[in-house]
Amino acid sequence: MNTETDLGAIAVRALQIMADGDRADFDALVHPAAINREDEVEPPNCRAGGPAGYYATALWLRAAFEGLAHEVHHLVADGNLVVIDATMSGRHVGPFAVYTPEGGVDTVFPPTGKTFAITQSHWFRIADGQVVEHWANRDDLGQAKQLGWVPPTPAYLIRMARAKSRAKRAA
């Protein structure tokens, strides 16, 4: 199972399980020592790496974004590296908290009920049929504009401050 087609299928499924996978899917597709290079702004439990960290990231995203989906547009595989050009979409239905590098709550975006669709590129390194490394480029500003996070209204800034206070108390 080292053909570029096989590696591409693994990478596509690894992206899709962020929206619909259960823990067993992550255990099967993500190496125990896998690194997620995008976990710096995620909750501390997402930074564990391996299947547990990747699954925690999926739950974090799903809690904030209903109907989370990835539409794959292009895929390129070279050796053990697979790059996916995709659009991520969903509806903002729960608080979305981002964290400091030290693991503290940085900013919380209360739900707006708005939908978004943004382009992303995901890079996966695959070994022995599992993801061993992931990093991405995302259109975070486009997402923020579509969800009404920027430019924020005065009322939304107040909602953000309240949401951050609640998240800090819960942490």
Describe the structure.
This protein has 171 residues and is an alpha+beta fold. The protein has helices spanning 4-20, 23-29, 50-64, 140-146, 154-170, and strands at residues 30-36, 65-78, 81-92, 96-99, 105-109, 115-127, 130-138. Helix 2 (23-29) packs across helix 3. The radius of gyration is 16 Å and the shape is globular. The chain starts with a helix and ends with a helix. The model has no long low-confidence stretch (mean pLDDT 95).
Keywords:
single chain, 171 residues, alpha+beta, five-stranded mixed sheet, two-stranded antiparallel ribbon, 37% strand
What is the succession of H and E elements? HHEHEEEEEEHH
Sheet of most strands:
5 strands, mixed
Number of helices: 5
Unreliably modeled segments:
none
- Rg, nearest Å: 16 Å
- Main-sheet strand order equals 1-7-6-3-2
The portion of residues forming beta strands comes to 35-45%
Question: Cα distance, first to last residue?
Answer: 43 Å
Gross morphology: globular
Oligomeric state of this protein = single chain
Mean pLDDT: 95
Structural class: alpha+beta
Query: Helix content range of the residues, please?
Result: 25-40%
Q: How many extended strands?
A: 7
